[in-house]
Amino acid sequence: MTKKRYIFLVLILGMLIALSPFSIDMYLPAFGDIAKSLHSTTGRVELSLSSYFIGLAFGQLIYGPLMDRFGRKVPLYFGLCLYIIASVGCFLSSSVDMLITMRLFQALGGCAAQVACIAMVRDLFPVKDIAKVYALLFVVLGASPLLAPTAGSYLTLAFGWQAVFVVLLAISVIVLLASFFFLPESYKPDRSYSLKPGPIVKSFLTVIRHPQFYTYAISGSVAFCSLFSYVAGSPLVFMDVFGLGKKEFGWVFAGIAVGFIGAGQVNTQLLKRFKSEQIIAVSAIGQVIFSVVFLTGALNGWFGLWSTIAMVFVVLFFVGLTNPNTSALSMAPFPRNAGVASALLGAMQLGLGALSSSAMGLFSGRSAVPLATIMAVSAALASFVLFIGRRNIVQPVESETPAGAPVH
């Protein structure tokens, strides 16, 4: 693969994976305006974020088998079209309940982009390059919050909260056109792949029983809860507790996202000298240490605005180091059923993310303690799963497995 084609493919895949973070982050500064416009509360509006996470998690379990049966692009087109229709519904929402429902369908469509992206990386690149490609894609994930909440705050101030969904609609149309004209089909339809419930369940069980998959997928997904709790809780912590306005919140959110971007760049360099397993182990320990410090400081009232920003920044930096590597090692053993593996990985991340974001909405008070608690608990559990699960991995899959070769 030429360098030019390599960069081009990563750019298109980056557009796919950026759709969800834009959908999540862009409307966060508008929570208060949405609540006021729809005669509701910020807590109720937060449920539209939880419904989006639930839709992402559930939808991926549907698209995984479909992409292994029909190829990657046809289910992708269907999902993007559903996202476009749901975006119109969000724009027209006249109640919070309607917005919550439309966000669910928006997620059910948009998750096709994420499943296709993760599976296509496994299809198009050798296993030895997967972690590097994921690191580049996570730079996109980190860059998205630099733009999304800031743009959302200005859009809301200038045109009202509905303008956010107009922009999301336009982005999804661009992604659909780019996928149709420029993205190659990376996996031929497999007519032998059954869509009956029994074989689908068996396929999922085959993947989830693999020690390398469940170790890195579960530990990475639990660690990723820190990000979801931050996304859901950041308006409360920074706008309600510390009194930031929409513009200031957008810039703080963007600044913390630099941690993700930095993590992606650092990870790319570290992979030249260290294995993914080594990076994950050090990152997991770092996440535990700093999240516990954050929780201790929050409980004792040690942290003001800037120290809270610093602690969240560092914790999410370690999440940014961990996730590309756990994703790569989770996907590595599955050259054939990458769609199912991608779906399970995404469902774990987003299902746990929905729980953590819901917890922020249910238990948050006027302090950073709930956010720090979820970050500390998720870091500790992720490390426990990682170091226990690694004992069951007899022979890690780190190099290319020929297509069609059995995975034991």
Automatic annotation (TrEMBL):
Coiled coil: none annotated. It is a multi-pass membrane protein. The keyword Transmembrane applies. Signal peptide: none annotated. One of its GO terms (molecular function) is xenobiotic transmembrane transporter activity. Residues 6-391 form the Major facilitator superfamily (MFS) profile domain. Pfam families: MFS_1 (PF07690). GO terms for cellular component: plasma membrane. The chain crosses the membrane at residues 7-29, 49-67, 74-94, 100-121, 133-155, 161-183, 213-237, 249-267, 279-297, 303-322, 343-363, 369-389. InterPro entries: Efflux_drug-R_Bcr/CmlA, MFS, MFS_dom, MFS_trans_sf. It is found in: Cell membrane. Its main location: membrane. CDD domains: MFS_MdfA_MDR_like (cd17320). It comes from the Bacteria. GO terms for biological process: xenobiotic detoxification by transmembrane export across the plasma membrane. Keywords: Cell membrane, Membrane, Transmembrane, Transmembrane helix, Transport. Belongs to the major facilitator superfamily. Bcr/CmlA family. This is Multidrug effflux MFS transporter. It comes from Mucilaginibacter ginsenosidivorans.
